[in-house]
Records
---
Amino acid sequence: MKLLLHACCGPCACYPTQALTDEGVDFTLLFYNPNIHPYKEFKRRLAALRELAEKKSYRLILDKTYPLEECVAGMLAERPGPRCAFCYRIRMRYAAAYAKEHGFDAFSTTLLYSPYQKHELLVQEGRAASEAFGLPFVEYDWRPHYQEGVDLSLELGLYRQPYCGCVFSERDRYEERPKVKNGEGPRETQGYVRVTKKIIQLERQDHLPYL
């Protein structure tokens, strides 16, 4: 199976990519996460995933599309439903469309690894994207291996984000648990971004495709 694996960040990709490698699955990572705010955080997570791909020699496709206003408007439009539905929808539809257009057999996402995501809602959006674009969505459940992934990311020294991704989750995170200043702060990525033949940079767009 030739799998396109959407990846939300480096740490969440650690266990899924190792498991797929062990299973002999031919996969390619895809970074498409215009829901991550602010832009500095978006760049940190992109760099962390790129660092993982470099260290493990994984194939990686990068899309730096970042239409801030459109994303926030989309999340607000979900009310009174869960705003996460919009974030899942735009990424699963993009992954499904890209996979279909570029000859992949199926698609999935590292979001299925995190116990902090709305798993049932995510699967629902993955299935909807699968039906819309006519490509299988592989419903992995890597949540039981969450700590293993955490340990792998710490061993690799990857930047670990303190909140889910959108500007609302950032607010909720710091309202509930104010940041404790310990003099350290987030680790910078130190510019670990050299390009290899296995990394493909896509043209950045000013809108959300496939909606």
Note: The chain has seven helices and five strands.
---
Amino acid sequence: MRTTLLVAAAIALLGIVAGCATQKETKTAEPVKVETAQAEAKPQPLRQYLDTPTGRWLVHDTNRPAPPIITPGDTCGAAPSDAVVLFDGTEDSMKANWTDTNGNPAKWVFRDGSMESVAKAGYIQSRQQFGSCQLHVEFATPSTVKGSSQGRGNSGVFLQGQYEVQVLDSYENKTYPDGQCGALYGRAVPLVNASRKPGEWQSYDIIYHRPIFDKDGNVTRKATFTIFHNGVLIQDHVVLEGGTGWINAHAVTDYKAHGDKGPIQFQDHGNPVRFRNVWLRELKD
């Protein structure tokens, strides 16, 4: 009986040892299988294609058409080779490219290489019409300071004859912020006031994408503006929510359907503001 019990115990002990050994082998085998599965599931680099207006191209494809080459201006602010030059500082350029709003000769005067607004001259506008564009324009408010707020060096740059980027002597001149220099009039306050002193030449570089309307006159894509004032970003891809026209002190205008193109206009607000070096690059929609 004792011998039988000893044999049974020995068999049981061998079973436990064998079971532990089997369990240990199983534990060491599983991670190998997991690692193998992970290695097999590792994503491989993709051959990426880009669909463009000129075709379907691989990333870093040397056969892909390169952008056209243009020659930049010789100096800062000078027109590049693909620009439409609207005013080059000559009287001939003014007469050839600018009229009043009725298409008649403008009443603005040519003086010292610039176009200058005079009393009751009305707006001046480009003969050519444009839609989305990159516009460069330089301006100077009067060196002799007269008036305050909106009565001091007031003018405006209008895209498509519709949407105003305010021109104002905003050097130490308090006014409502959405009407200071660089504002989208009544709509968007500039990020900073980058104005130079009265009489000094200043610049706007405006990236404008026009609004789009459907056949019923409803706006389906609103206009956007990016503006640099004297090289400083003051409007950062701002969506224009409506018109910039004046109704009264605390009202704004809405969009009104218009054509795909319109003139560049400079405003006569009763102040002798000057403009020079006006050029434009048309942008595709």
Note: DSSP finds two helices and 17 strands in the chain.
---
Amino acid sequence: MVDILRFRTDEAVDHPAVTVDSFLDQSNATAVRIEPGDDARDLLPHLDRLRLIEINFPTYGDGRGYSAARVLREAGFAGELRAVGDVLVDQIGNMRRCGFDAFEPDQPLDSSDVENAFNRWPDVYQATGDGRVPIWNLRHPGSADG
């Protein structure tokens, strides 16, 4: 089993995530797993009771999970957002920018490669889900359009 890379200080969820369909049919789950083809917007009315949302990347080329992450973070989801599956080190910097704060890759990632991926571009030009301020806003604080 590959270790989970987690960048949060709260306690980790200690039970498995259920599918979106199962979650919508029950009332007590606090962890859900989004598969490609699931609509993250179905979870928006329930974000206040979720502690963990896993987003599955069955192949590295399937980018739908990035959109799901942005939808959830922009809607105010503050719980753990975990990328699972075919997660590669060259993707995790962009995944973090979309709001992922935990990663469970199918294959182990070298810790120094992970650190380098997160620090490769310290400044960003677009709004992000990881809290970094876009460089145009640093140059012109309070500007809405740079």
Note: The chain has a mean pLDDT of 86.
---
Amino acid sequence: MYLEPPVEVTKSEFTIKASEIEQFLRAPAMELKPWPNAMVQLKDKTMFIRHARKEEVPKMLSYIEKIMKVEHDFYDIVGVRVYAELLGWYRNRLKDPYVLVGIIDGKLAGMANGRILNPDINISHHTMTFIRKGRIGAAMYYAKCYYALEVLQQKEFWSTFESYNGWMLGFRTGQTPYPWPEYQHELGGARVYTITQDMWHRSVKNFDQEVIGSKFVFDNIPEELVKQSEEFEVPEEIVV
């Protein structure tokens, strides 16, 4: 939009550097405690869970791009949104995101992501698994809850669900819905389901033992497992 100045000006054109504009486009980052490395036993496999690194995003996108074309169980819309979330992190266009990856034998087995709305509220985005069965999805979802409510000590964990499989995770954790439409999740304006600190300590904190079948281990993780999980390969085929 152009408007004529209401007064005479001595300089009618100004130059501004893109590096000066960037501060207005990028949300200032909060200082957050990191996710502590963890391992969990899944049947006959051990999964290592760590923060993803930004430089790993491109190879994750190459796989998610394939999932965007899968037209069953809502994988197409989930794939599109996860692609945007990962790219938003990579391009610094997402406020305080976190991405956790689950790695089994050097292979990317699952991922879970979300972002920090404010010091009190953690917004869950998506949980995806790339190896069939094994309770990988449940483990990755629990990792997000643990990060929000135990590590960051936030008051609430907000989630919503786009698929029936995803909704089952919320059902098993007994999440309570907020009234709709007064509260809407940023993923399409769907219902907000929440886990509070009280719910976490009363029941959800034991989800790993009760549903996954084994406790998360944060201490004395074998150095060999840590080294093996320093890098990961993405699956060659779509198995969703």
Note: The longest strand covers residues 107-116.
